[in-house]
Write a structure and sequence with these properties.
It contains one helix and twelve strands. The chain is mainly β.
Length: 209
Amino acid sequence: LQGKPAAKSQAAPAPMVLVPASRVELEDSQVILDDESKGFHTSINRLQGSLDTRALPLLAFTLSGRTEGKERDDLSVAGEMDQRDDSLFSRLDLNNVPLARYLNYFLPGKGLRFESGSASLSVRLRRPANGEIEASGRAEITDGSLRIPGIAEPLTGLEGAVAFDPGTLHFRELRAHFLDSDWVATGAIDDLTAPSFDVEMHNPMFPLQ
């Protein structure tokens, strides 16, 4: 973490030292995110916000920043972490970020994968006591591409909203291009590592289900 922390505390000031009854303000900071297990690498720039330790061991945070070298803020996150058991509850919002990099990160590491396009995401992050982070939320997809195991051609031109959790994608009237035709799909894809489908597809030229 790099930047200009400005501590507001009853204790003697020390950059980024979290003590009871204190509030740390961040200005123009940078965070490097590097998750080798999922091949995820990015940085958040111009990070600003606050870390509130007045209710320790609960740490509350409200932050905003910029990803992908954006000129305006496109990330905001707020929530709290319990330092007694590392439990976490937060909401993350991302605006117009690369679909393959960010949405794939919240899905299983193998199986169905988004390959291109952009998305605006609203993600609920939860980590139970001493457990793993669980993510669920919604993505508004623009010009996306999705490759599904067992299907030779990817779905391209994806436009619409997708709700997701670690095991399922839900969608309603999601537009896609497949096998030289345009389709509108409603339903769900379950078990994203070995997908199964409960989907209705409509093509104006060929009204099949």
